[in-house]
Amino acid sequence: MDLLSDIEKQLKQTTAQAFLIALSGGLDSTVLLSLFAKLRQKQPHLPPLSVRAIHIHHGLSPNADGWAKHCQNLCDQFQIPLIIERVQVDKTNGIEAGAREARYQAIKKHLQTQEVLVTAHHLNDQTETFFLALKRGSGLQGLGAMQQQSVLFGMPILRPLLGFTRPQLEDYAQKEKLNWITDESNEDNRYDRNFLRNQILPEIRQRWRHFDHAVQRAAQHCFEQQQLINELLQPCFEQHLLDDQKQFSLVNFLEYSSQKQTALLRMWLAKNQIAMPTQVQLIHIIDDVIQAKADASPQFQLGEHIIRRYQQRLYLTEKFVDLSQTCIDMPLNQQITLPDNLGTIFAAHNAKGILVNWNEKQVQLADTQEPIQIRFAYTGKVKRQHNRPAETMKKIWQELGVPPWQRNRIPLIFYDRTLQSAVGFFRVFHEK
User: Which residues contact 334 (CB under 8 A, 6 or more apart)?
Assistant: First the structure.
Protein backbone atom coordinates (compact mmCIF):
# COMPACT_ATOMS: atom_id res chain seq x y z
CA MET A 1 0.00 0.00 0.00
CA ASP A 2 1.30 3.48 -0.92
CA LEU A 3 1.73 5.74 2.10
CA LEU A 4 0.88 8.99 0.33
CA SER A 5 -2.26 7.79 -1.42
CA ASP A 6 -3.53 6.07 1.72
CA ILE A 7 -3.17 9.21 3.84
CA GLU A 8 -4.78 11.25 1.10
CA LYS A 9 -7.82 8.93 1.25
CA GLN A 10 -7.93 9.29 5.04
CA LEU A 11 -7.91 13.08 4.84
CA LYS A 12 -10.77 13.04 2.32
CA GLN A 13 -12.83 11.21 4.95
CA THR A 14 -12.32 14.02 7.47
CA THR A 15 -13.65 17.56 7.42
CA ALA A 16 -10.40 18.94 8.84
CA GLN A 17 -8.28 21.30 6.75
CA ALA A 18 -5.77 22.39 9.42
CA PHE A 19 -3.21 20.05 10.96
CA LEU A 20 -0.57 20.36 13.70
CA ILE A 21 2.10 17.66 13.40
CA ALA A 22 3.82 16.37 16.54
CA LEU A 23 7.46 16.36 15.42
CA SER A 24 10.12 14.65 17.54
CA GLY A 25 12.67 14.54 14.70
CA GLY A 26 12.79 10.74 14.78
CA LEU A 27 12.08 8.46 11.83
CA ASP A 28 8.31 8.19 12.27
CA SER A 29 7.48 11.89 12.66
CA THR A 30 9.98 12.86 9.94
CA VAL A 31 8.16 10.57 7.49
CA LEU A 32 4.85 12.09 8.63
CA LEU A 33 6.12 15.62 8.06
CA SER A 34 7.39 14.70 4.57
CA LEU A 35 4.06 13.13 3.63
CA PHE A 36 2.05 16.18 4.71
CA ALA A 37 4.45 18.47 2.86
CA LYS A 38 3.78 16.43 -0.31
CA LEU A 39 0.03 16.46 0.26
CA ARG A 40 0.07 20.22 0.66
CA GLN A 41 2.00 20.55 -2.61
CA LYS A 42 -0.55 18.40 -4.42
CA GLN A 43 -3.27 20.64 -2.96
CA PRO A 44 -6.12 18.21 -3.58
CA HIS A 45 -8.29 20.31 -1.28
CA LEU A 46 -9.77 23.74 -1.74
CA PRO A 47 -8.80 25.62 0.30
CA PRO A 48 -5.33 23.99 0.52
CA LEU A 49 -4.22 22.20 3.66
CA SER A 50 -2.90 24.26 6.54
CA VAL A 51 0.10 22.43 8.05
CA ARG A 52 2.15 23.40 11.11
CA ALA A 53 4.50 21.38 13.32
CA ILE A 54 5.35 21.44 17.01
CA HIS A 55 8.48 20.07 18.72
CA ILE A 56 8.48 19.52 22.48
CA HIS A 57 11.86 20.15 24.12
CA HIS A 58 11.74 17.95 27.25
CA GLY A 59 15.26 18.82 28.37
CA LEU A 60 15.88 15.21 29.40
CA SER A 61 18.75 14.52 27.00
CA PRO A 62 22.06 16.37 26.53
CA ASN A 63 21.20 16.25 22.81
CA ALA A 64 17.83 17.99 23.22
CA ASP A 65 19.04 21.34 21.85
CA GLY A 66 20.47 19.59 18.80
CA TRP A 67 17.16 17.80 18.19
CA ALA A 68 15.26 21.09 18.29
CA LYS A 69 17.71 22.61 15.78
CA HIS A 70 17.36 19.53 13.53
CA CYS A 71 13.56 19.90 13.58
CA GLN A 72 13.84 23.59 12.72
CA ASN A 73 16.10 22.80 9.75
CA LEU A 74 13.71 20.07 8.63
CA CYS A 75 10.70 22.40 8.75
CA ASP A 76 12.64 25.12 6.95
CA GLN A 77 13.38 22.59 4.21
CA PHE A 78 9.69 21.74 3.84
CA GLN A 79 8.56 25.33 4.43
CA ILE A 80 6.36 24.31 7.33
CA PRO A 81 6.05 26.65 10.36
CA LEU A 82 7.48 25.10 13.55
CA ILE A 83 6.71 25.76 17.21
CA ILE A 84 9.39 24.74 19.72
CA GLU A 85 8.01 24.44 23.24
CA ARG A 86 10.20 23.79 26.27
CA VAL A 87 8.60 21.87 29.16
CA GLN A 88 9.44 20.75 32.68
CA VAL A 89 8.81 17.05 33.23
CA ASP A 90 7.24 15.97 36.53
CA LYS A 91 8.95 12.65 37.31
CA THR A 92 6.72 11.78 40.29
CA ASN A 93 4.91 8.99 38.40
CA GLY A 94 7.91 8.06 36.23
CA ILE A 95 9.70 9.82 33.39
CA GLU A 96 7.61 8.19 30.65
CA ALA A 97 4.28 9.23 32.17
CA GLY A 98 5.59 12.68 33.13
CA ALA A 99 7.02 13.38 29.67
CA ARG A 100 3.79 12.27 28.00
CA GLU A 101 1.66 14.47 30.27
CA ALA A 102 3.94 17.49 29.76
CA ARG A 103 4.04 16.90 26.01
CA TYR A 104 0.29 16.80 25.46
CA GLN A 105 -0.44 19.69 27.83
CA ALA A 106 2.11 21.82 25.93
CA ILE A 107 0.61 20.85 22.58
CA LYS A 108 -2.89 21.67 23.84
CA LYS A 109 -1.81 25.27 24.46
CA HIS A 110 -0.94 25.72 20.79
CA LEU A 111 -3.64 23.69 19.05
CA GLN A 112 -5.93 26.14 17.28
CA THR A 113 -9.69 25.90 16.88
CA GLN A 114 -10.59 23.51 14.05
CA GLU A 115 -6.98 22.23 13.98
CA VAL A 116 -6.30 18.50 14.37
CA LEU A 117 -3.21 17.08 16.09
CA VAL A 118 -1.44 14.51 13.89
CA THR A 119 0.89 11.94 15.48
CA ALA A 120 3.18 9.38 13.83
CA HIS A 121 2.09 6.26 15.71
CA HIS A 122 2.37 3.18 13.51
CA LEU A 123 1.42 -0.49 13.63
CA ASN A 124 4.40 -1.54 15.76
CA ASP A 125 3.52 1.18 18.29
CA GLN A 126 0.01 -0.25 18.44
CA THR A 127 1.37 -3.66 19.42
CA GLU A 128 3.48 -2.12 22.18
CA THR A 129 0.50 -0.14 23.48
CA PHE A 130 -1.63 -3.30 23.53
CA PHE A 131 1.02 -5.22 25.49
CA LEU A 132 1.45 -2.41 27.99
CA ALA A 133 -2.31 -2.37 28.56
CA LEU A 134 -2.21 -6.15 28.99
CA LYS A 135 0.58 -5.77 31.55
CA ARG A 136 -1.59 -3.31 33.52
CA GLY A 137 -4.49 -5.76 33.49
CA SER A 138 -6.62 -3.34 31.44
CA GLY A 139 -10.14 -4.14 30.34
CA LEU A 140 -11.66 -3.67 26.90
CA GLN A 141 -11.20 0.10 27.03
CA GLY A 142 -7.43 -0.17 27.50
CA LEU A 143 -6.98 -3.14 25.19
CA GLY A 144 -8.73 -1.17 22.44
CA ALA A 145 -5.34 0.60 22.28
CA MET A 146 -5.08 3.45 19.76
CA GLN A 147 -7.62 4.37 17.10
CA GLN A 148 -6.93 6.19 13.85
CA GLN A 149 -9.11 9.06 15.06
CA SER A 150 -9.79 9.82 18.70
CA VAL A 151 -9.77 12.53 21.35
CA LEU A 152 -7.01 12.81 23.95
CA PHE A 153 -6.65 15.51 26.62
CA GLY A 154 -9.60 17.19 24.94
CA MET A 155 -7.80 17.37 21.57
CA PRO A 156 -8.86 15.72 18.29
CA ILE A 157 -6.06 13.38 17.16
CA LEU A 158 -5.37 11.73 13.82
CA ARG A 159 -2.94 8.81 13.52
CA PRO A 160 -2.70 8.26 9.75
CA LEU A 161 0.26 5.85 9.92
CA LEU A 162 -1.42 3.37 12.24
CA GLY A 163 -1.89 0.82 9.46
CA PHE A 164 1.79 0.80 8.46
CA THR A 165 4.76 -1.01 9.98
CA ARG A 166 8.04 0.63 10.94
CA PRO A 167 9.90 -1.20 8.10
CA GLN A 168 7.48 0.40 5.63
CA LEU A 169 8.29 3.82 7.06
CA GLU A 170 12.01 3.05 6.84
CA ASP A 171 11.64 2.14 3.15
CA TYR A 172 9.88 5.44 2.46
CA ALA A 173 12.53 7.45 4.37
CA GLN A 174 15.36 5.82 2.44
CA LYS A 175 13.71 6.42 -0.93
CA GLU A 176 13.13 10.08 -0.02
CA LYS A 177 16.67 10.41 1.43
CA LEU A 178 15.29 11.77 4.72
CA ASN A 179 17.50 12.44 7.73
CA TRP A 180 16.28 11.84 11.25
CA ILE A 181 17.62 11.83 14.80
CA THR A 182 17.87 8.85 17.14
CA ASP A 183 16.99 9.23 20.82
CA GLU A 184 19.63 7.38 22.81
CA SER A 185 17.06 6.61 25.54
CA ASN A 186 15.34 4.24 23.07
CA GLU A 187 18.05 1.69 23.89
CA ASP A 188 17.41 1.86 27.65
CA ASN A 189 15.44 -1.30 28.46
CA ARG A 190 14.60 -0.09 31.94
CA TYR A 191 11.63 1.57 30.27
CA ASP A 192 8.79 -0.87 29.67
CA ARG A 193 8.10 0.17 26.09
CA ASN A 194 11.78 -0.15 25.14
CA PHE A 195 11.97 -3.56 26.81
CA LEU A 196 9.09 -4.78 24.67
CA ARG A 197 10.41 -3.11 21.51
CA ASN A 198 14.02 -4.25 21.83
CA GLN A 199 13.85 -7.64 23.52
CA ILE A 200 10.42 -9.25 23.43
CA LEU A 201 8.61 -8.30 20.23
CA PRO A 202 11.47 -8.96 17.76
CA GLU A 203 11.47 -12.65 18.69
CA ILE A 204 7.69 -12.83 18.47
CA ARG A 205 7.73 -11.21 15.04
CA GLN A 206 10.45 -13.55 13.87
CA ARG A 207 8.25 -16.53 14.69
CA TRP A 208 4.91 -15.02 13.60
CA ARG A 209 5.40 -12.60 10.69
CA HIS A 210 1.91 -11.11 10.81
CA PHE A 211 1.72 -10.78 14.58
CA ASP A 212 1.31 -6.97 14.53
CA HIS A 213 -1.71 -7.24 12.24
CA ALA A 214 -3.21 -9.90 14.51
CA VAL A 215 -2.77 -7.60 17.52
CA GLN A 216 -4.36 -4.77 15.56
CA ARG A 217 -7.41 -6.95 14.87
CA ALA A 218 -7.62 -7.98 18.54
CA ALA A 219 -7.40 -4.36 19.63
CA GLN A 220 -10.13 -3.43 17.16
CA HIS A 221 -12.37 -6.22 18.49
CA CYS A 222 -11.84 -4.92 22.04
CA PHE A 223 -12.64 -1.37 20.94
CA GLU A 224 -15.83 -2.45 19.16
CA GLN A 225 -16.99 -4.53 22.13
CA GLN A 226 -16.44 -1.56 24.44
CA GLN A 227 -18.39 0.66 22.04
CA LEU A 228 -21.26 -1.83 22.09
CA ILE A 229 -21.30 -1.93 25.89
CA ASN A 230 -21.32 1.88 25.98
CA GLU A 231 -24.19 1.98 23.49
CA LEU A 232 -26.27 -0.44 25.57
CA LEU A 233 -25.52 1.45 28.79
CA GLN A 234 -26.02 4.94 27.33
CA PRO A 235 -29.65 5.43 28.51
CA CYS A 236 -28.67 4.44 32.06
CA PHE A 237 -25.49 6.54 31.91
CA GLU A 238 -27.46 9.64 30.92
CA GLN A 239 -29.54 9.28 34.09
CA HIS A 240 -26.37 9.65 36.16
CA LEU A 241 -24.48 12.25 34.11
CA LEU A 242 -25.38 15.72 35.36
CA ASP A 243 -25.35 19.02 33.46
CA ASP A 244 -21.83 19.59 34.71
CA GLN A 245 -20.25 16.42 33.32
CA LYS A 246 -17.65 16.52 36.09
CA GLN A 247 -20.48 15.50 38.43
CA PHE A 248 -22.05 12.05 38.58
CA SER A 249 -25.32 11.22 40.36
CA LEU A 250 -25.25 8.27 42.75
CA VAL A 251 -29.03 7.91 43.03
CA ASN A 252 -29.82 4.15 42.76
CA PHE A 253 -26.18 3.49 41.78
CA LEU A 254 -25.55 0.91 44.52
CA GLU A 255 -28.52 -1.16 43.34
CA TYR A 256 -26.58 -2.17 40.22
CA SER A 257 -24.28 -5.16 39.85
CA SER A 258 -20.60 -4.49 40.47
CA GLN A 259 -19.91 -5.00 36.74
CA LYS A 260 -22.45 -2.34 35.79
CA GLN A 261 -21.09 0.04 38.44
CA THR A 262 -17.52 -0.18 37.14
CA ALA A 263 -18.68 0.15 33.51
CA LEU A 264 -20.63 3.33 34.29
CA LEU A 265 -17.69 4.81 36.18
CA ARG A 266 -15.39 4.07 33.23
CA MET A 267 -17.84 5.82 30.91
CA TRP A 268 -17.89 8.86 33.20
CA LEU A 269 -14.10 9.05 33.39
CA ALA A 270 -13.78 8.56 29.62
CA LYS A 271 -16.32 11.37 29.10
CA ASN A 272 -13.96 13.62 31.07
CA GLN A 273 -10.82 12.47 29.18
CA ILE A 274 -9.35 10.80 32.28
CA ALA A 275 -6.91 7.90 31.85
CA MET A 276 -8.60 4.61 32.67
CA PRO A 277 -8.02 3.42 36.26
CA THR A 278 -7.12 -0.15 37.09
CA GLN A 279 -9.73 -2.57 38.41
CA VAL A 280 -8.20 -2.22 41.89
CA GLN A 281 -8.54 1.58 41.69
CA LEU A 282 -12.18 1.28 40.61
CA ILE A 283 -12.89 -0.98 43.57
CA HIS A 284 -11.31 1.58 45.90
CA ILE A 285 -13.48 4.33 44.40
CA ILE A 286 -16.61 2.26 45.01
CA ASP A 287 -15.67 0.95 48.48
CA ASP A 288 -13.84 3.96 49.94
CA VAL A 289 -15.60 6.88 48.28
CA ILE A 290 -19.08 5.91 47.09
CA GLN A 291 -19.84 3.63 50.06
CA ALA A 292 -18.17 5.79 52.73
CA LYS A 293 -20.28 6.96 55.67
CA ALA A 294 -22.86 9.62 54.85
CA ASP A 295 -21.14 12.28 57.00
CA ALA A 296 -17.65 11.55 55.62
CA SER A 297 -15.76 13.61 53.03
CA PRO A 298 -14.07 10.79 51.10
CA GLN A 299 -11.75 11.29 48.17
CA PHE A 300 -9.52 9.27 45.85
CA GLN A 301 -6.60 10.61 43.83
CA LEU A 302 -6.48 9.49 40.21
CA GLY A 303 -3.46 10.97 38.46
CA GLU A 304 -3.74 14.75 38.58
CA HIS A 305 -7.41 14.61 39.57
CA ILE A 306 -9.38 13.92 42.74
CA ILE A 307 -12.66 11.99 42.85
CA ARG A 308 -14.77 13.28 45.75
CA ARG A 309 -18.25 12.53 47.06
CA TYR A 310 -20.73 14.90 48.62
CA GLN A 311 -24.24 13.78 49.44
CA GLN A 312 -25.48 11.78 46.43
CA ARG A 313 -22.91 12.96 43.90
CA LEU A 314 -19.38 12.25 42.75
CA TYR A 315 -17.26 15.23 41.76
CA LEU A 316 -14.15 15.20 39.58
CA THR A 317 -11.83 18.03 40.62
CA GLU A 318 -8.25 19.15 40.29
CA LYS A 319 -5.81 18.94 43.19
CA PHE A 320 -6.29 22.11 45.23
CA VAL A 321 -3.82 24.28 47.13
CA ASP A 322 -4.56 24.78 50.85
CA LEU A 323 -5.69 28.41 51.10
CA SER A 324 -6.80 28.36 54.74
CA GLN A 325 -3.90 30.61 55.84
CA THR A 326 -4.03 32.92 52.82
CA CYS A 327 -4.73 36.61 53.42
CA ILE A 328 -4.73 39.16 50.57
CA ASP A 329 -5.06 42.94 50.84
CA MET A 330 -7.70 44.30 48.47
CA PRO A 331 -7.34 47.96 47.48
CA LEU A 332 -10.29 49.49 45.64
CA ASN A 333 -10.30 49.90 41.86
CA GLN A 334 -7.59 47.30 41.38
CA GLN A 335 -8.22 43.89 39.82
CA ILE A 336 -6.63 41.08 41.80
CA THR A 337 -5.81 37.63 40.45
CA LEU A 338 -6.67 35.05 43.09
CA PRO A 339 -4.44 32.02 43.76
CA ASP A 340 -4.97 28.48 42.48
CA ASN A 341 -6.96 29.45 39.35
CA LEU A 342 -9.82 31.06 41.27
CA GLY A 343 -10.17 33.88 38.80
CA THR A 344 -10.12 37.62 39.47
CA ILE A 345 -11.80 39.87 42.02
CA PHE A 346 -12.48 43.61 41.84
CA ALA A 347 -13.95 46.07 44.35
CA ALA A 348 -15.03 49.66 43.71
CA HIS A 349 -17.17 52.41 45.22
CA ASN A 350 -20.72 52.92 43.99
CA ALA A 351 -23.76 54.87 45.22
CA LYS A 352 -24.60 52.22 47.84
CA GLY A 353 -21.10 51.63 49.20
CA ILE A 354 -18.67 49.04 47.84
CA LEU A 355 -19.48 46.55 45.08
CA VAL A 356 -17.32 43.42 44.92
CA ASN A 357 -17.21 41.32 41.72
CA TRP A 358 -15.69 37.85 41.66
CA ASN A 359 -15.89 36.16 38.26
CA GLU A 360 -19.65 36.29 37.58
CA LYS A 361 -20.69 36.69 41.24
CA GLN A 362 -21.02 39.94 43.17
CA VAL A 363 -21.98 41.38 46.54
CA GLN A 364 -22.96 44.87 47.64
CA LEU A 365 -21.35 45.94 50.92
CA ALA A 366 -21.42 49.04 53.09
CA ASP A 367 -18.72 51.65 52.71
CA THR A 368 -15.71 51.50 55.02
CA GLN A 369 -12.49 53.27 55.88
CA GLU A 370 -11.00 50.10 57.29
CA PRO A 371 -8.52 47.95 55.33
CA ILE A 372 -10.25 45.35 53.13
CA GLN A 373 -8.86 41.82 53.01
CA ILE A 374 -9.64 38.56 51.25
CA ARG A 375 -9.37 35.31 53.19
CA PHE A 376 -10.59 31.79 52.50
CA ALA A 377 -11.27 30.32 55.94
CA TYR A 378 -13.25 31.40 59.01
CA THR A 379 -14.18 29.42 62.11
CA GLY A 380 -16.42 31.84 64.01
CA LYS A 381 -20.21 32.00 64.06
CA VAL A 382 -22.06 34.17 61.55
CA LYS A 383 -25.41 35.95 61.67
CA ARG A 384 -26.98 36.30 58.24
CA GLN A 385 -30.29 37.94 59.17
CA HIS A 386 -31.44 39.99 62.15
CA ASN A 387 -34.15 37.48 63.04
CA ARG A 388 -31.86 34.43 62.86
CA PRO A 389 -29.37 33.27 65.45
CA ALA A 390 -25.66 33.15 64.68
CA GLU A 391 -24.64 29.89 62.98
CA THR A 392 -21.40 28.04 62.46
CA MET A 393 -19.84 28.32 59.02
CA LYS A 394 -20.15 24.54 58.62
CA LYS A 395 -23.92 24.72 59.11
CA ILE A 396 -24.25 27.62 56.66
CA TRP A 397 -22.24 25.86 53.97
CA GLN A 398 -24.30 22.69 54.48
CA GLU A 399 -27.54 24.66 54.17
CA LEU A 400 -26.26 26.28 50.97
CA GLY A 401 -25.23 22.87 49.58
CA VAL A 402 -21.57 23.81 49.14
CA PRO A 403 -19.27 20.75 49.12
CA PRO A 404 -16.56 20.75 51.84
CA TRP A 405 -13.59 21.16 49.44
CA GLN A 406 -15.17 24.26 47.83
CA ARG A 407 -15.75 26.06 51.12
CA ASN A 408 -12.13 27.16 51.50
CA ARG A 409 -12.03 28.31 47.86
CA ILE A 410 -14.67 31.02 48.15
CA PRO A 411 -13.29 34.52 48.81
CA LEU A 412 -14.36 35.90 52.17
CA ILE A 413 -14.36 39.70 52.43
CA PHE A 414 -13.15 41.18 55.72
CA TYR A 415 -13.17 44.77 56.90
CA ASP A 416 -10.10 44.62 59.10
CA ARG A 417 -10.83 41.43 61.13
CA THR A 418 -14.62 41.42 60.72
CA LEU A 419 -16.19 39.10 58.17
CA GLN A 420 -18.59 40.88 55.78
CA SER A 421 -19.43 38.37 53.06
CA ALA A 422 -18.73 35.13 51.24
CA VAL A 423 -18.87 36.55 47.72
CA GLY A 424 -21.84 35.20 45.79
CA PHE A 425 -23.21 33.20 48.73
CA PHE A 426 -24.14 35.37 51.72
CA ARG A 427 -23.62 38.66 53.54
CA VAL A 428 -23.10 38.97 57.26
CA PHE A 429 -25.67 40.88 59.33
CA HIS A 430 -24.06 43.23 61.86
CA GLU A 431 -26.09 44.84 64.65
CA LYS A 432 -26.07 48.64 64.39
Answer: 346
